[in-house]
Amino acid sequence: MNPEFEKxxxxxxxxxxxxxxxxxxxxxxxxRVALLLANGVSPGDIxxxxxHRIRTRENGMCVMCxxxxxxxxxxxxxxxxxxxxxxxxxxxxxxxFLKHDSLCPLVAFLKADPAMYAVQFRVAVNxxxxxxxxxxxxxxxxxxxxxxxxxxxxxxxxxxxxxxxxP
Length: 167
Ligand code: SF4
Ligand code: SF4
Hints:
Bound molecules: iron/sulfur cluster
Structural class: alpha+beta
Strand content: 15-25%
Largest sheet: 3 strands, antiparallel
Distance between the termini: 28 Å
Helix content: 25-40%
Strand order of the largest sheet: 5-6-7
Order of helices and strands: HHEEEEHEEHHHE
Number of strands: 7
Radius of gyration: 15 Å
């Protein structure tokens, strides 16, 4: 994240109480799985359910959330870095969505600051493309089938620019 955005986001997120970490199950690229394990995350905190993801507790909260904060903040999953943007993949197109203000108080802040919006949008796209390009088509299909209510489509980007057939 951009440092200025990170500072503001921390304050807003602290008041929000990690709403987006409830029922999150963020997907993980193979590289992110390796990074998490190398940094002491227990293999038992990662599960495979059509794609690798962080587990949730029985109450639905992400197992990485402690006291309302992410305990793997510096190497958290790509989609957590991308928030409040999210995505799905349709064919060879990555569709980027922005959550509604009602889901995430950060959205209003971004909409009010076009420069900050542009910075975080770039961070989101880079993380989402990195994740999506690392996953198998069947894994992307499972992720893309997860409903994303209360979001607006804000961009459509080729999954593999200049190579419509994929890698
Ligand atoms: S929902 Fe938005 S404001 Fe709340 S913790 Fe998540 S990113 Fe932060
Ligand atoms: S990994 Fe961290 S930021 Fe992502 S859902 Fe879990 S607690 Fe939240």
